[in-house]
Write a structure and sequence with these properties.
The complex is a heterodimer of chains A (about 350) and B (about 325).
Chain A (H helix, E strand, L loop, with lengths): L14 H24 L7 H9 L6 H35 L11 H15 L5 H25 L6 H25 L3 H9 L7 H28 L3 H6 L4 H23 L5 H13 L3 H25 L8 H20 L4
Chain B lengths: L1 H23 L7 H9 L4 H36 L11 H16 L9 H24 L6 H24 L3 H11 L8 H20 L1 H7 L3 H6 L4 H23 L3 H15 L3 H25 L8 H19 L2
Classes of the chains: A mainly alpha (about 350), B mainly alpha (about 325).
């Protein structure tokens, strides 16, 4: 279960790759964003996109579409992609488990249960109301896992955290499925589960903004400690690290970022699991590089997946969560086969 | 050893008690005396119909499916050396789920009117489960299959299957969607004697075969290097045990739907009750699984009677707290 991280010279790569990812990744991200903005029911040329951003004119419909619908959507995709990827990197580093992803600590299923309750008992709730409910549910799910894990005899080991997380996730999701079937809201909930970026507007971006700043700052601040923690708890303690504090702060960062992402866009799978692996294969094992690079790659995957989600079955949208998995699975399988036990 | 015997007896008594209770309870409750009379052959026509045609086959299926999933989970946890492994990691639930969703999708609501498709569905699910497991094993093969690669490939393909499943499910009309959701949550719907007879031989054949291989499982759990040095032909044994796990879980899923939590939790409960030796752990897991599913089915049928709660949901709701308790109590 616990993965040995091979510390060979080949894997600890230095900065050139980081610079390349930063520069090329940023360029690709900008290109993908422009494509994403110009594609849609009304096609808009990239020049008009540029114009709408720098020289906004209220009288053009195109400019309004860009400002009010497409731009927030892309910004949302960028934010959420980076949230999920960084959360996944933190989880894998803290638990030293290659299979860890943000949702194993009860976040997703807590949010789903809160939403199921809202849909079933307060169908008139506003979108912002359900947003807050999902966020609170995510926090409560995490807290429950953490509580049970720390009440356990022998303390909170990574294995116990994983088992408690999976069990509580199963429990919460069973209750929300029960509510969904009994009150006939299964399909509403399932659309949310599949993930979607269609409903993002500036208000939601504003709600996410403080979280992105706090969560990312914690993640960057913790990056060095996480690198040490990923060598194992004994080593970390031997080097004088307060592992309990690092782990708690890490979980708080994951909860803030994944909670916000899940509340706004539903469960978008695979980014949190696969992007950290890809990043690690590219830049090595130093989390000071992994955190910013996985943020960029996560944004890129989600923006591209969102473009595909709109194109594959136009004019209907395919759930973006399914697209990220379909894009991610082949690459993940390739990595799993190549690295064998190394991933 | 004495403790083990006590635990065996306790579980058997519990199963027996729930079995008797379950016979009486349902949409139509039958008094204990009437149950006895009907079983002896001189009950009213209505009682005979309800007991022999509806309740008994369903309860027998619950026992078989519970045992099958538990044993399959026990094999997979030991082979992958991963506590979180369950039949789902071999794609059995996702493969069967995808097959069922495709089936319902292409029959577009007409399937409820077609009586015989109710019997075709378990077959579809079984084929889907086996296909998924075969794909995962093949993709994980690279001069042999290491446990970690098997788990990783399993997770990857599972995510892929689930993604395709979601795409199709969202394009269904609401009634079909509901039917699929109920199936995906685990619902015993093979409830006739013909379903029972289709599953019974598998369980009677494969579960003893697994118990006969308990010593190999003990060694495999130590990891490949130890197993090789103890003279076990690792690759061949792994394949044989995987096939057993797939057959057991595939048959279970085909009549019981995707009951996901049971295969994970029953072996853990068994291990915490009788220890990790497979000679005693596997039979205990089988009995624990059978008991949980029988009990969950009874609760699911009666709690909100006349509507039913999918049994997979009940399993998670009653299994999770008990397992968390065990998790917190044992170091």
């Amino acid at each position: 279960m616990v993965n040995k991280i091979p510390l060979t010279s080949k894997q600890v790569r230095a900065k050139p790759m980081v610079v390349i990812i930063m520069v090329v990744g940023m360029l690709l991200l900008v290109c993908a964003s422009v494509i994403s903005i110009s594609l849609g029911a009304a096609s808009i040329t990239p020049a008009a996109v540029w114009q709408a951003i720098v020289d906004y004119d209220n009288s053009f419909t195109d400019h309004q579409i860009i400002r009010e619908i497409r731009l927030p959507r892309v910004v949302g995709a960028v934010l959420i992609g980076s949230f999920l990827a960084v959360s996944g990197a933190l989880m894998q580093g803290m638990t030293r488990n290659p299979l860890a992803e943000p949702s194993i600590i009860g976040i997703t299923d807590g949010a789903a249960l809160a939403l199921a309750i809202m849909f079933a008992f307060f169908p008139a709730v506003s979108y912002t109301g359900s947003l807050f409910a999902a966020f609170i549910g995510a926090g409560a799910g995490t807290a429950l896992v953490f509580l049970v894990g720390s009440l356990a005899k022998g303390g909170l080991t990574p294995a116990k955290l994983a088992l408690a997380g999976v069990t509580i996730a199963a429990f919460l999701s069973a209750i929300s499925s029960g509510i969904a079937i009994y009150f006939d809201v299964a399909q509403d909930l399932s659309f949310w589960f599949a993930g979607g970026l269609a409903n993002i507007d500036w208000q939601r971006i504003q709600l996410m903004l403080p979280i992105v700043i706090i969560g990312m700052l914690i993640a960057l601040w913790l990056a060095r400690s996480i690198t040490i923690l990923s060598l194992g708890k004994d080593v970390a303690q031997g080097l004088g690290q307060r592992t309990g504090m690092v782990r708690t702060m890490g979980i708080i960062a994951v909860m803030l970022m994944t909670g916000a992402a899940v509340a706004v866009a539903g469960t978008i799978g695979f980014i949190g699991l696969v992007i950290p692996h890809i990043t690690r294969a590219l830049v090595g094992l130093d989390y000071r590089y992994i955190v910013p690079c996985s943020a960029i790659l996560g944004s890129l995957l989600l923006v591209v997946a969102d473009i595909l989600a709109r194109l594959v079955n136009a004019p209907y949208e395919t759930p973006v969560g399914a697209i990220t998995a379909l894009v991610g699975v082949p690459f993940f399988l390739y990595l799993a086969r190549r690295e064998g036990r190394g991933i | 050893m004495k403790r083990t015997v006590w635990i065996y007896m306790a579980i058997v008594v519990l199963i027996f008690a729930v079995f008797l209770l379950s016979l009486q309870m349902g949409t139509m409750s039958i008094a204990p005396l009437d149950v006895w009379r009907t079983l002896m052959g001189d009950g009213t026509e209505q009682h005979t119909l309800v007991l022999f045609e509806f309740r008994l086959p369903r309860m027998v299926i619950a026992l078989l499916v519970g045992a099958g999933l538990a044993v399959s989970g026990a094999i997979l946890q030991s082979l992958s050396r991963n506590e979180l492994a369950d039949p789902g990691i071999l794609g059995i639930n996702a493969g069967a789920g995808l097959a069922v969703v495709l089936f319902i999708y292409f029959f577009q609501g007409s399937y409820t009117s077609l009586g015989e498709t109710i019997f075709a569905l378990p077959l579809f699910a079984f084929v889907g489960a086996i296909t998924a497991a075969f794909l995962i094993y093949t993709l994980a093969w690279k001069k042999g299959v290491t446990p970690i690669r098997l788990v990783l490939v399993g997770i990857g393909l599972n995510a892929g299957f689930t993604a395709i499943l979601i795409v199709f499910q969202l394009r269904m009309n609401p009634e079909d969607f509901m039917q699929a959701t109920v199936w995906l949550n685990g619902d015993i719907w093979g409830t006739s004697w013909s379903h029972t007879l289709a599953v019974l031989p598998w369980m009677l054949l494969f579960i003893p075969l697994v118990i006969a291989q308990a010593r190999t499982l003990n060694v495999m759990r130590l990891g490949d290097p130890s197993a090789v040095s103890l003279g076990v032909k690792v690759e061949r044994n792994r394949r044989r045990l995987l096939i057993l796990a797939v057959m057991l879980a595939g048959a279970s899923v085909s009549v019981g739907g995707a009951i996901s939590f049971l295969g994970l939790v029953a072996p853990h409960i068994a291990r915490r009750l009788v220890g990790p030796r497979h000679q005693v752990m596997v039979p205990t897991a089988a009995m624990v699984g059978a008991f949980i599913l029988l009990f969950a089915d009874m609760v699911g049928r009666n709690l909100l009677s006349p509507s039913e709660i999918p049994v997979g949901i009940v399993v998670a709701v009653i299994g999770a707290p008990y397992f968390l308790y065990l998790l917190m109590k044992t170091p």
